[in-house]
Specification:
Elements: H1 20-29, E1 34-37, H2 46-56, E2 59-70, E3 73-80, H3 87-113, H4 119-127, H5 134-143, H6 150-158, H7 173-182, E4 186-189, H8 199-212, E5 216-221, H9 226-239, E6 242-246
Parallel strand pairs: 1-2, 4-5, 5-6
Antiparallel strand pairs: 2-3, 3-4
The structure holds adenosine monophosphate and manganese (II) ion (MN) (3 copies).
């Protein structure tokens, strides 16, 4: 693996704008060799992505970005190289999807009180049958002319202290990491610089995360500055965590982030993708009915 792999991306299965197939095609066109699809709280895009990746000669790492509530904050935990058939992971994610439905209704009620009726139907139309997230509400409100772009909708309506904000009640750190490990995957804290944590709270988060069996943190991220990358390279070293890298690509509407155009990890990082057995299935996990294989065995494509 010569190039830095891209281990954090979204498709229309959550709040990205490219279908899993389109995402894989764009990744291949960008020269990406290894890509993880990590939609929010769902594995719904993995099958389509795996089929497309095989046809394109791209290595797909099946993944997911799990919404977690830790000390009253929302933290995103990436599961990499998960078995998409794992019943425990799937059951956990089903619970999060049910909560998303409830939260969407609450967001819509609040927006209606603020003078923007019809937001649940509007967000659902944006989601086109996939799970409903805040981004879908934001796209609906842009369409209605409530603000110029998605970013300003977030700022004016959807973040803490604003009329459409609902404090998330997601799963625990322990549960999320537990599901990922049950699925044979590696748990990674997504974009750690985004949480605005003090040093002591960051230390507590990473201590808790390691105690649950967490393995890595995103050092290089589409939402990190180069300084952030150096800061979190140091955190990874000090905490004995592996380093991951991902664009957090959501689609061509955000042209400042491209698939796989990631700088290398700072010196001294241990890349999560250099671990033995990483991406060994290349997205071709054995079907749940196939006989159990020993871990680390190279599987011939089906
Ligand atoms: P949700 O999981 O439904 O609460 O939505 C979280 C997603 O909203 C993130 O993954 C981003 O895609 C998007 N998002 C969060 N904050 C912002 C922001 N300030 N501006 C634009 N998009 C945002
Ligand atoms: Mn998102
Ligand atoms: Mn995230
Ligand atoms: Mn993401």
């Amino acid at each position: 693996m010569s190039k830095t792999p891209d281990l954090h991306t979204h498709s229309t299965a959550s709040d990205g704008t490219l279908s899993p197939r389109e995402l894989m095609a764009r990744a291949a066109a960008q020269g990406v060799e290894v890509l993880a699809l990590t939609d929010h709280d769902t594995l719904a895009g993995i099958d389509e992505a795996a089929t497309a990746a095989r046809a394109l000669g791209l290595t797909l790492v099946p993944g997911v970005e799990i919404s977690v509530t830790w000390n009253a904050r929302t933290i995103h935990v990436i599961g990499l190289d998960v078995d998409p058939h794992c019943a425990r992971l799937r059951a956990g994610l089903a619970g999060l999807l049910a909560y998303r439905e409830q939260r969407a209704a609450e967001i819509a009620q609040r927006l209606a009180r603020a003078g923007w009726p019809g937001a649940l139907e509007g967000a659902r139309a944006q989601a086109k049958g996939a799970l409903v997230g805040r981004t879908h509400f934001a796209r609906f409100l842009v369409q209605r002319g409530a603000a110029q772009d998605v970013r300003s909708v977030f700022k004016r309506f959807l973040v803490k202290g604003k009329p459409g904000h609902v404090a998330g009640r997601w799963t625990t750190l322990e549960e999320a990491v537990g599901w990922i490990r049950a699925a044979g995957g590696q748990a990674v804290v997504a974009h750690p610089a985004r949480y605005g944590l003090t040093r002591s709270r960051m230390k507590r988060l990473l201590d808790d995360f390691r105690a649950c069996g967490g393995r890595g943190i995103e050092v290089v991220s589409g939402s990190h500055s180069r300084d952030d990358a150096f800061t979190f390279a140091r955190w990874a070293r000090e905490q004995g965590l592996l380093a991951s890298a991902g664009s957090d690509y959501h689609g061509p509407e955000s042209p400042w982030i491209e698939l796989g155009q990631l700088p290398p990890l700072p010196d001294g990082c241990r890349p999560i993708w250099s671990q033995p057995g990483f991406a060994r299935h290349g997205g071709a996990w054995p079907s749940p009915l196939a006989p159990t294989m020993s871990p680390g065995l190279d599987l011939a494509p089906a």
